[in-house]
Amino acid sequence: MASSSSLLLFLSIISLLFPFISSSNSTITIPLSFLNTNPNQNLYQKLSHLASFSLARAHHIKNPQDSSISNIPLYPHSYGGYSITLPFGTPPQKMTFIMDTGSSFVWFPCTKKYQCSKCPISSQKNPTFIPRLSSSARVLGCKNPKCSWIHTKKSPKSLCHDCESRNTTNCKQICPPYMILYGAGSTGGISLVETLNLPNKKIHDFLVGCSLFSSQSPAGIAGFGRGLSSVPSQLRAKKLSYCLVSHKFDDTPKSSMLVLDTVYEKSKKLSYTPLLKNPVVAGRNALCEYYYVGLRQITVGRQKVKVPYHYLTPNSKGNGGTIVDSGTTFTFLSHGIFEPVMNAFVQQVKGFSRSEKNERLTNLRPCFNVSGHKTVSLPQLKFHFKGGSEMALPLANYFSIVGENDVICLTMVTDSMLKSSTGPSIILGNFQMQNFFVEFDLKNEKFGFKHQVCK
């Protein structure tokens, strides 16, 4: 439940919006940059921070709750993610968003009265959208079909109760405000239809949230999930692809490209696995947002990790299975998967002692002391998918150097408190996808990938 102070804040500032608003080509390419929200942290702090928020992200992905006001899922993003810039409005106002394949709603910080609690200091530099400066900004009406994209649990009559009670055909009632609740915070505001100005085309009447407050979100969220309100869905894209530049844990302004194709062309030299059908579970609509893939096996070196089948395939309650999530940093494995994966590394890594001190400092395990060694040989980690495709991860994608090049830690996380698994069992995070070209073939329901240097 939202705190009473958050709710009062929402109700007190929601009215501030109203004075400010009056009631191609086939390929779209957008720069994609690594988002570092706190460049002043040392490496121990960064790794611990990323591990903690990867776990927080996993908690909410695995236990999605439909809000009493809106059921759009959002998660904490004050860890390392990837950002894009999208210009909204007439004339355009450039807004920064975190690119998130694990949700679908798009929202930006809005109006000069926007408030963000517990947000990183660096996020205060991000601009807020000013509706009164855009001639194309319009508040979403309650009878607009897009209102039901946000409030899926409500009937048209309950959304437009004022219109129904007055029995009028010229209803000016707005779509009810959204207030999205998530574990460490919230965001709330009014839905708009606005012009999205892409490099080679304009998208009119794009549904976007004008958030008046949020908590722990360093920027707006651009949902690239499978819901109706996501960027690919609103653009009617046939494919979504991107290549994630390497995490350097610094503030280097390096970027790659995110590509949306509205006309389908077959890609070359990719390994593919089917995108699986999402589980449909009453009260857990967020499961429909995710990109499920059929991970069938994990190998560490030559050892096949024994993973019980119930972890690999979603059951009728939506528990189990694997999703690909750009908003998660370190891959999450349910406890019953993580332990045998970790043990496989511990058994095969010879000549290096465990560093329990660094495991406590980073919240990562296992960590190995490699000081005094010029070369380090470690078992290769592979993900094996339905259809026979294999993702062989480079060492830098699953181990990170800690301290003065003398300790390395496995960059995957689990939570021993979640032994009775709910939701996806495996969440493939962006750290493991560094320097991979990945493609969501939305037309043919396939997930493709190949290893390459992203630039």
Automatic annotation (TrEMBL):
One GO MF term, please?
aspartic-type endopeptidase activity
The annotated active site, in chain numbering, is: D100, D325
Which species expresses this protein natively?
A: Anisodus tanguticus
Q: Note the superkingdom of the native organism.
A: Eukaryota
Keyword Transport part of the UniProt annotation: no
Q: Where is the Peptidase A1 domain?
A: 82-450
GO biological processes: proteolysis
Family statement drawn from the similarity comment of this UniProt entry: Belongs to the peptidase A1 family.
PROSITE patterns associated with the record: PEPTIDASE_A1
**The protein's name:** Peptidase A1 domain-containing protein
